[in-house]
Amino acid sequence: MSENISIRVRRIVSANLNSLVDAMEKSNADGIMREAIREVERALEDVRSELGKIIAAKAQCTRVIERTREKMNEYATKAEFAVQNGRDDLAEAAIARQIDLEKQIPVIEATLAEHASKEKELEGYAAALTGRIHEMQADLAAFADARRMVGADAPAGTADHIIQSATKRADHAGHAFERAAGMTQADFNTHKQTSAQLNELDQMQRADDIGARLAALKARKAG
To answer: What whole-number distance in Å separates Cα of residue 217 and Cα of residue 90?
Structure first.
């Protein structure tokens, strides 16, 4: 979407409640109020569409994790087979691939957790918009009733009471949707300066892991 979904929800909810109040103060209120409701409904459709994408992305992450673990098991079996046949070189290759796959799991799981958090956030937006639509529809119906009552010589201030009620709801329409996150420039510079050393350390640890697993497989064979 071209506009951040959280910003859009806040803007739509607040703007349309204020538009609703403005419409109540005009003679041609109904058309403006109905359009305001339609705009919130369009926002709700977009939120639900985004929610569908997030749910699909979660399912994809789950499938990738399952396939990755299956491949890890396959390489573990291959490494053991290679050791049993005296091919330590092939066993090392299989173990190396197994370790590479293991390192992918936490990254995919982190992505899955992010999707789950986003799903919960979008569900909250959808609920808020749905509730706002119901509220606006009730305001529209109440305003229409008030106009009819005023037209039938109803007590003075009936329509004003409806307007004031909607105004109060508009005053409380703001919700805290912003979230602040991200790496600072100082953090980025520190990461950049040490990336080479960390990469070298990763390679050393990888080689050590391969050696340790190969030794374990050989020990199991000897036993």
So the answer is: 13
